[in-house]
Each structure stands twice: as structure tokens, then as C-alpha cells.
Amino acid sequence: MTEDKSGPVPGEARAADVRPAPQADPAPLGLAGFALTTLLLSIINTNLLKETGAIVPVLGLAAFYGGIAQFVAGLFEFRRGNTFGATAFASYGAFWMSYWWIVTHVATAGDVHNAIGLYLLGWGIFTAYMAVAALRTTLAVLGVFVLLTITYILLAIGEFQGGAPPHVWTEVGGWFGIATGLVAWYASAAAVINDSHARTVLPTGPRGPKQAPAVRG
């Protein structure tokens, strides 16, 4: 009489009982880092803040909050399988770190306004196709990408115009940047508050019958 070995292997049974550990949503962090850095720089671009050293706090935010913190949020979105969120946060985190590096070197670089114009235009194109992808997320997130696309285009035009900064196009771009930062802050606040209350306190307007796993807000 042979031993019946058809039952489950103990190791396999234990593996079936394992549940994945819950992961926090990195999107509110990424949105908050983007929002505050964008707001402060945009206020300077509007020429509302005329202090000669006003760029210094922006560079601090660009390196650490808008830069490193947002980039890390993008890495966690990769781990969660969120292609849109990973691409957005990692890219804009890299944008802010590159902005920090450029500004700290531009004083010794000579005339670079056309090159910076191309730099901003490239980011505008990237943001435009991300806005198309954002059509399947929420109205709040879509608003961020649409406003940001306009902001980049206006800032690029301002750089192409040359002359003593800030140019009028840069100032207009600054106002659109302020709007972008405020909407991003709202999306971040909504994600945190709605999650902690386990209900919709701040609506964000989900779009489409099947919402893509995108940046939440």
C-alpha cells in the first residue's frame, strides 16, 4: 500500500496564505513636491517678488522636494505598476533637479536664452502628450497637465524673446504656473484627505468608465 502524496505541499499552502503588504500611495507626495516648487518659481516669474535672492529658496525646493522627493515618488509608482504616475513623477523630479543644476551654472555660461527656450519647449511637448494620457485620470490631474503645457510654452516664448528678464511672456507664464501649482496642490490634498477619511471629501472628477491607474488626485 503506497503513501498518498497528492495533497498540497506544506510550503505551497503557506505561500498561498501570504498576502501582499499594503503600500501607501506615493502620488500625493509627488504632487505636493511639484506644486510648492512650481508655485514659488511662478511667483518670481510674475515679477511679484522682486528680491534679488528670491531664487535661492526655489533652488532648495528644486533639488530636494520638487526634485528628489518627486523622483522617489516616481520610483514607487514603477513598483506599483503605474506607468503614467511613474513617467510623470520621475520626469518632473528630474526636471527640477536639472533646473537646479542649470540655474547654478548659468551665471558663467554666457548667453543661453535660446537654449533654455528649447529646453522649456521640449518639456512643453512632453507635457502635452502626458495631458493626452491624463484624459483617462481625473479632472484635477488633467487640469495640472493642461495648465502646465501652457506654462511651458509661454515660458519658452519668453526665453526666445531675449532681453532683460522677466519678459512679458514669462510673466504671463508665471500666472499660469501659479494656477498649475494650486491645482496640483488641490489634487495632492484631495488624495491625502480622501484616503485618511476613507471617503470622498474633496472631489477630483474621475474620468471615463474605467479609470486608468494614474496619478491620483
From TrEMBL:
Belongs to the acetate uptake transporter (AceTr) (TC 2.A.96) family. It is found in: Membrane. NCBIfam families: AceTr_1. It is a multi-pass membrane protein. The chain crosses the membrane at residues 29-48, 54-76, 83-102, 114-132, 139-160, 172-193. It comes from the Bacteria. Its main location: membrane. This is Acetate uptake transporter. Residues 1-22 are annotated as: Disordered. Keywords: Membrane, Transmembrane, Transmembrane helix. It comes from Streptomyces anandii.
